[in-house]
Automatic annotation (TrEMBL):
Catalytic activity: ATP + H2O = ADP + phosphate + H(+)
Keyword Coiled coil belongs to the record: no
Source species taxonomy: Eukaryota, Fungi, Dikarya, Ascomycota, Pezizomycotina
Coiled-coil positions: none
UniProt protein name: RNA helicase
EC number(s) recorded for this UniProt protein: 3.6.4.13
Organism: Tuber magnatum (white Piedmont truffle)
Length: 494
């Protein structure tokens, strides 16, 4: 069963694609579900009731709100957050932010993560499953607010993801009095000691602060590495994570999270997070449901730009992200699109205004002030922007050996079709080699990638409009999560 959605009548429905649908038409089968009514209030510690109606005004509150409901059909008992022994102030924030019930990964992971003595975890989870909230809830519960030392450290590969994680921490910790600080360029006071309970940063900056004696990890309780496969695979970042880990006590709880974990990363985690519990997905489960995957066959490399120009008005129906391989290519395409009279933003690690410039670009895109964003893989992982209806692979993702990068493809298209919605991905191919690479993607993930004639932009527009129509009025909800089952030997299969 797919993710339940809530209609305007307040009832829940199962929305599934009609199996008789052809490749170019989207139709759905809607079935009513007999689910309990939504929670309307949470009893606070003083007996007051905090209504769950409107979330607080916060940059990531929409994304947090969308993580509130998950399909728990098949569970003999639906857990509630109250059963986890969480602080009352945290429960109050969860209620306010419309976390009605824990997602499946939260329901299984949080009790394990809160065990004493703490357990390390290697967790594999699809994007949009609520795994960020899972480790944030754990960290907020473990922090001793009576002490001013840094007790939680979260490391992310990009400043964009670090800022998003911080938004979740501040949203869930808004009633706890938890103090937070960034360890990313331009967002912390240089030369000043860190005195926050929780620090979120990128590995290079965090390591530099540790070396300078500004960030003291002597009292650290929990270290989280988000997008760990990317972090430990990239030159430099992995080594920085290792050096940070070497400065902490062996009793610190270590969590490594990602949507994909190649075997070499699993082996590495055994040394990085000793005796860790492992949560993994079966290989065939590493697909993104709810995304209509298509491709367009361009005449040659240069012809791809002309096709992109034709698609522009479709890209702006919702919000769209265009992925290219190189930073200079992203800048060049953005400049050419601007000359064509089209408004487009560009985001990569070499922007002139540095971190502040990158922050403004992503904030403008998240708020809807800009609707088309061209970027490199800097934005491929973990970024939640609920309005993204289309992803374009202008260049297919390649690894350092010039082979198709399957995990990055998964992460890229996962920027759309989020929170139980439906999305579109379009990949450009321009020769036999690129076409064969895309067919490898189709075979690897066991999905159908349908061809759209290059000159048939109207068909793409029809599909996108159909998708947006179906997305309207849907309950903010995350994508389907597979159940987690305990296995012998400290392994949990998702």
């Amino acid at each position: 069963m797919t993710e339940p959605v809530q209609g305007s009548d307040g009832k829940f429905y199962d929305l599934t694609l009609d199996p008789d649908t052809d490749d170019n038409t989207l139709s759905f089968i809607v079935k009513p579900l007999d689910l309990p009514p939504t929670v309307s209030a949470h009893q606070g510690p003083s007996g007051d009731t905090a209504a769950i109606s409107e979330p607080v005004d916060h940059p990531m509150m929409e994304s947090i709100h969308r993580k509130a409901f998950n399909d728990t059909a098949g569970d003999t008992h639906r857990k509630t957050f109250d059963e986890f022994g969480l602080p009352e102030a945290l429960l109050r924030a969860l209620a306010l932010l419309n976390f009605r019930w824990p997602s499946r990964i939260q329901a299984r992971a949080i009790p394990i993560l809160l065990e004493d003595p703490p357990r390390n975890l290697l967790g594999q989870s699809q994007s949009g499953t609520g795994k960020t909230a899972a480790f944030v809830i754990t960290m907020l519960t473990r922090v001793d607010l009576t002490k001013g030392s840094t007790q939680g450290l979260v490391l992310a590969p990009t400043r964009e993801l670090a800022r998003q994680i911080m938004d979740v921490i501040q949203g869930l910790g808004q009633y706890m009095g938890v103090k937070t600080q960034f360890a990313i360029p331009a967002l912390f006071a240089k030369g000043r000691d860190f005195d926050a309970h929780i620090v979120v940063g990128t590995p290079g900056t965090a390591l530099d602060c540790v070396r300078r004696g500004l960030l003291n990890l002597d009292h650290l309780k929990m270290l989280v590495i988000d997008e760990a496969d990317n972090m430990l695979d990239l030159q430099g970042l992995g080594e920085q994570c290792i050096r940070i880990k070497s400065t902490i006590r062996h009793t610190v709880q270590i969590l490594l999270w990602s949507a994909t974990f190649p075997q070499r990363i699993v082996e590495f985690s055994k040394r990085y997070a000793p005796d860790c519990l492992t949560m993994t997905l079966e290989h065939h489960e590493l697909t993104v449901a709810g995304i209509k995957q298509m491709y367009m066959d361009c005449l040659n490399v240069e012809a791809k730009f002309g096709v992109l120009v034709q698609l522009y008005h479709v890209l702006t129906i919702g919000s769209s992200i265009i992925f290219v391989h190189r930073r200079d290519e992203a800048t060049r395409i953005a400049e050419r699109m601007t000359l064509e009279g089209h408004k487009i933003s560009v985001l990569h690690s070499a922007l002139e205004n540095g971190g502040a410039g990158r922050d403004k670009v992503i904030d403008d895109f998240r708020s809807g002030r800009t609707k088309v964003l061209i970027t490199t893989n800097v934005l491929a992982r973990g970024i939640d922007v609920s309005t993204v209806s289309m992803v374009v692979n202008y260049d297919l993702p390649m690894d350092k050996d010039r082979r198709i990068d399957f995990p990055t493809y998964l992460h890229r298209i996962g920027r759309t079709g989020r929170f139980g919605r439906i999305g579109v991905s379009i990949s450009f191919v321009h020769d036999t080699t690129s076409w064969m690479q895309l067919m490898q993607v189709s075979e690897h993930f066991g999905v159908s990638i349908s061809k759209v004639p290059t000159g048939d932009v109207e068909e793409v527009e029809r599909i996108v409009n159909s998708i947006l129509k179906h997305n309207q009025g849907m309950l903010p909800a995350v994508t389907k999560e597979d159940s987690i089952h305990a296995r012998p030997g400290g392994h949990v299969r998702i």
